[in-house]
Amino acid sequence: MTSNERRLTAAESKGLRTARELEGHLAWLDTITPAALGILAIASGIYTYLGVSSLLEDTGAMSFFAAVAYSIAVSVGIFVFWSYILRLLPSMRTASGFIGLTLSTIVGSLAIIAMSSWLNAAALAGSAAVEQHLAKTVQEYQAALEQAHDIALRGQALGREVERTRLTFEELADREAREGGTTGVAGDGAVARLLAQTTDRLRSLEEIIAAQDARIEAAFEEGNRLLGQMRALTVAPGPVEQRSVAFSEESVRLAGVIASLNQYSVAPLVARAAADLPASIILPELDGGTAALRSTQSETMAAVFASVERLSASLGEAASEVLAIEPPQETAYNPISSADAVIRYAGSFVPSWAGAIAIDLLPGVLVFVLAVTQAAIRSGRDGLSIEETLTLADLKAAINAMRDVEASMGDAESEMLRRLRSERAAPVDRAPDAD
Predict the structure, then answer these.
(1) Which residues are listed as membrane-spanning (predicted)?
(2) Considering Cα of 237, then 238, then 241, then 245, what sign does the dihedral take?
(3) What was the pLDDT predicted at 123?
(4) pLDDT digits over 173-210, tens only?
(5) DSSP assignments along 372-413, one per residue
(6) Under 8 Å CB-to-CB from 376, ≥6 apart: which residues?
(7) Helices 33-55 and 350-381 meet at what angle, rounded to 10?
(8) Residue 273 contacts residue 281 (beta carbons within 8 Å)
(9) How far apart are CA 294 and CA 50, in angstroms?
């Protein structure tokens, strides 16, 4: 052993064996990597085509070729991009080069997500996302219908207050007419007429309120019927685009029903009637036979009128409470494409988004694996000279190469000697011709 030769340590030998083993694995994996990248790129292109087709309204030949061209461009872009990264990034030895290519990989991955992954998600979960949009719209319409119905029922509840007060005045009027319950003199006097007049005003308001019951219930039943049809369209079989058209028609009808329910609320009518009630009462002329009776009638009528004013204030306050309830927001169904629906309801379709992104960015995992493997190979070979890393197969290949070189050189030397001999013999052959 010469002074330049040294024996490998156990750690160096182990690292060298590991590096050679990993190189053998990479050599075999290199044979299938391009095919795997091509399959992933084609699959992504197919789903991209489906996503683009859902966005294009026209179904003619131009739209078809546009979708095909876009999907092919995406497939080629994904294949070329990851081919570059798989070859270059794991081979980077400097920190600046590694960081630069890593940033380029991140930017390229974001570009792939922007041009392909969201369309893949639209193809995977587009119909389900549109159906969820329909279901959410149904919930919004149902909430608006129930709120409008609740406001209308609160308005109808004012009728019970009016009825209770009307019965009180009616009873007072009856007692006054039969027994003179307030003035002490029975008969159809001024007080009885005032009480009857107040009773008639309250009865008219009560009848108006009661007349709205049938309309409110009919509108609410119609709204529920339309909601049932919209729910059925949400889960019905068939293309979601066709169901969306029928859904939109039903939503327009339901919006009209909700608007009618808002108009059927009697709270504004009760508020106006309560404000006008004192002014609508006409005080009858005192008709008592004596001054004492007329004084009693006057006091009683003043008390009745004060009671009417209190009733007016009470009804007005109750009506104001109903009017203060915020009416339902105007709900309208807005058709949405499958791609937009997937983006809007992305939280509900996390598995589809994960699959759509994974099919495009899965080669990034291969890049990481290759980078780790190349680092392990370099670690196993660092510090070793070329002579120390040669294997028996490498030596055999080198010897065969030397033999090939020597054989080639021998053939070349033989050819040169033959030519020289030919050139020396040529003048002797031409001598007789010269003579």
Answers:
(1) 26-50, 62-86, 98-119, 353-372
(2) negative
(3) 81
(4) 666 665 554 554 555 556 666 667 777 777 887 787 88
(5) HHHHHHHHHHTT--HHHH--HHHHHHHHHHHHHHHHHHHHHH
(6) 18, 19, 22
(7) 160
(8) no
(9) 93
- Asked if pLDDT for residue 118 goes beyond 70, the answer is yes
Q: Is the dihedral of CA 252, 257, 259, 260 positive or negative?
A: positive
**DSSP type of residue 182:** T
- Helix or strand run (H / E) with residue 100: helix 95-112
Which class for 380: exposed (0-12), middle (13-18), buried (19 or more C-beta within 10 A)?
buried
Mean pLDDT of 82-99: 84
Q: Under 8 Å CB-to-CB from 163, ≥6 apart: which residues?
A: 206
Average pLDDT over residues 19-45: 81
**CB 130, CB 122: distance < 8 Å:** no
pTM attached to this predicted model: 0.64
On average, the pLDDT of the chain sits at 76
Task: Locate 9 and state its tokens.
Answer: 């340590």
Q: Is the CB of residue 300 less than 8 Å from the CB of residue 283?
A: no
Spacing of C-alpha 311 from chain mean position: 53
Tell me 419's DSSP state.
Answer: H
Nearest to 268, CA basis, from 333, 315, 335: 315
Spatial separation of the C-alpha atoms in residues 334 and 248, rounded to whole Å: 8
Distance (Å, whole) CA 186 – CA 39 = 104
DSSP states of 196-245: HHHHHHHHHHHHHHHHHHHHHHHHHHHHHHHHHHHHHHHH-SS-HHHHHH
DSSP string, 322-343: HHHSPPPPP-------HHHHHH
Q: What gap in Å lies between CA 103 and CA 115, rounded to an integer?
A: 18
Domain boundaries, the chain: 10-91+350-393, 130-337
Residues 202-211 pLDDT 10s? 788 778 788 8
**pLDDT computed for residue 177 by the predictor:** 62
* Cβ-defined contacts of 280-285 (< 8 Å, 24+): 280/201, 281/194, 281/197, 281/198, 281/201, 281/305, 281/308, 282/197, 283/194, 284/190, 284/193, 284/194, 284/197, 285/190
